[in-house]
């Protein structure tokens, strides 16, 4: 590095600026793992660690619970309990207190401190407060098991930038509950249910908010099936259906560009949905949907937005010119017309009417009571929103064009609500894939005979209708609603964009190894801040720029 940095900026023999910057790229990767309790985040972290070590990385797992335990010890906060569940709940309480006292990203800060210590130990440096521990040229990876609050993921992504990758671990609720029942045998199902709900979405923002953290992931992997099966002798044997290692291997290939990896159909479809999502001006949330036919062709996209007479939604149609914003007087989206959410206002009016009509409530009407009423299903009413939902707009767009939706597949950024679910079933859609959960949805309880979340043994409804009558008798076709797996939209461009040479220009032969991108920027995070890199590039004595 010294020879790279000590040439004068005006020296015609100095290294090319792009080559110099490439020399400042860190060879470290940083992974976060997030998943609801019982999903097996530790199992995924350990599998990733083994794969990275085989790929030549010095990999370390750093546990969030160790950060909490160390902080609790300093605070003299007892964590011991007579039961496993009691100990885990004490850890939850301590984690909440740590975030409450030092900010929602406090645990991420503790993990960052552990990275500095691990890196310094590997390099043989002494850690000094306020001084950076610069990475060397060795390949290292740090795996954080596991994140529970969105502020943690957002801070880590800001600090480590493109070197950070968040892995979301998918696992069905029934499987998770079964695993937790075995782990906490003395807890009982009701206590486990409360434990799972607190983990998914605690009442306080400084608590565990796994559902909000999960959808920030760059990559999703399914850990629902067991890693091992029992043979007739009762011995553990590898389960061929457990593909976690294969999927993590593909992720590392995607991040390091050691192979030519291109998107799967579902990854491209969800990328379309994510793009459609950006069109929404809804004050509550942005949702996007993409409808594809059986061959993977895009039929329509949709976003949650206020419908416009004549077909479609506001903001989606051409005005006089395609590069002009709509005239404010003809734009009736909530953000422009009124500036408030009609659904929330209607909820509040219902709550006010309830309080006024019940004398016992009227006498106790306080802000706290109103907050409690809003936390009930009254606050979950969705029928008064002016927006057509993304799934519905996609289906309606296809209908306006006369395109059949039978046998289609729908990719949506958020789990469909129960209103959309009934129309999805009626439209003949075979499958729905989603990223974000939607806790208000009653799709499965209301339409469980027509919707399934079980992939094993599933027959697409369009194929079911072609079966002989004797095979269909007594059975119902079901639309598959399942979580999206693979490269998330936020990672899509970095994963699949061709930013480097893949072949020898003279022979046309594919290169055995692919060089770093030339002229389009660096693929990974820099060891220095951009202000330090500026100084390195232009300083007469480049060594002073360090």
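^ structure tokens above, recovered residues below v
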């Amino acid at each position: 590095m010294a020879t790279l940095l000590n040439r004068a900026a005006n020296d015609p023999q100095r290294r090319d600026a792009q080559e110099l910057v490439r020399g400042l790229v860190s060879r470290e990767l940083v992974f976060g793992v997030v998943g609801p309790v019982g999903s097996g985040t530790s199992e995924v972290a350990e599998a990733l660690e083994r794969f990275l070590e085989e790929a030549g990385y010095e990999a370390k797992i750093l546990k969030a619970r160790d950060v909490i335990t160390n902080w609790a010890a300093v605070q003299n906060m007892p964590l011991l309990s007579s039961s496993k569940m009691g100990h885990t709940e004490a850890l939850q309480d301590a984690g909440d207190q740590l975030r409450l006292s030092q900010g929602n990203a406090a645990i991420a800060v503790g993990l960052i401190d552990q990275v500095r210590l691990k890196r310094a130990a590997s390099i043989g440096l002494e850690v000094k407060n306020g001084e950076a521990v610069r990475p060397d040229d060795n390949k290292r990876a740090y795996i954080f098991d596991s994140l529970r609050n969105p502020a943690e993921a957002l801070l880590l992504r800001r600090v480590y930038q493109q070197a950070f990758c968040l892995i979301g671990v998918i696992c069905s609720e029934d499987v998770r509950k079964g695993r937790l029942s075995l782990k906490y045998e003395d807890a009982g199902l009701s206590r486990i249910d409360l434990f799972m709900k607190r983990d998914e979405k605690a009442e306080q923002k400084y608590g565990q908010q796994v559902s909000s953290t999960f959808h920030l992931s760059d990559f999703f992997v399914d850990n629902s099936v067991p890693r091992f099966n029992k043979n007739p002798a009762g011995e553990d044997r590898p389960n061929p259906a457990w593909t976690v290692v294969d999927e993590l291997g593909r992720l590392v290939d995607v991040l390091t560009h050691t192979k030519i990896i291109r998107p799967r159909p579902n990854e491209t479809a969800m990328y379309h949905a994510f793009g459609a999502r950006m069109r929404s001006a809804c004050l509550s949330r942005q949702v996007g949907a993409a409808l594809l036919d059986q061959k993977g062709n895009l039929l329509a996209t949709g976003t949650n937005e206020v419908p416009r007479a004549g077909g479609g939604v506001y903001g989606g149609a051409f005005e006089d010119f395609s590069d002009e914003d709509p005239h404010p007087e003809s734009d009736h989206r909530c953000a422009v017309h009124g500036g408030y959410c009609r659904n929330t206002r209607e909820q509040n009016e219902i709550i006010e009417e309830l309080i006024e009509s019940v004398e016992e409530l009227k006498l106790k009407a306080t802000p706290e009571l109103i907050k409690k009423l809003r936390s009930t299903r009254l606050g979950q009413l969705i029928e008064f929103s002016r927006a057509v939902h993304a799934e519905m707009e996609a289906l309606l767009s296809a209908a306006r064009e006369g395109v059949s939706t039978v046998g289609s597949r729908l990719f949506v950024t958020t789990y469909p609500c129960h209103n959309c679910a009934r129309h999805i079933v009626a439209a003949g859609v075979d499958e729905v894939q989603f990223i974000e959960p939607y806790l208000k949805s009653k799709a499965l309880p209301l339409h469980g005979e027509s919707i399934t979340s079980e992939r094993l043994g599933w027959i697409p409804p369009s194929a079911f209708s072609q079966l002989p009558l004797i095979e269909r008798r007594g059975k119902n076709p079901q639309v598959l609603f399942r979580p999206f797996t693979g490269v998330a939209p936020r990672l899509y461009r970095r994963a699949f964009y061709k930013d480097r040479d893949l072949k020898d220009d003279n022979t046309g032969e594919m290169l055995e190894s692919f060089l770093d991108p030339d002229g389009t920027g660096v693929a990974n995070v820099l060891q220095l801040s951009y202000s330090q890199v500026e100084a390195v590039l232009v300083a007469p004595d480049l060594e002073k720029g360090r």
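The CA atoms of residues 101 and 206 lie 9 Å apart.
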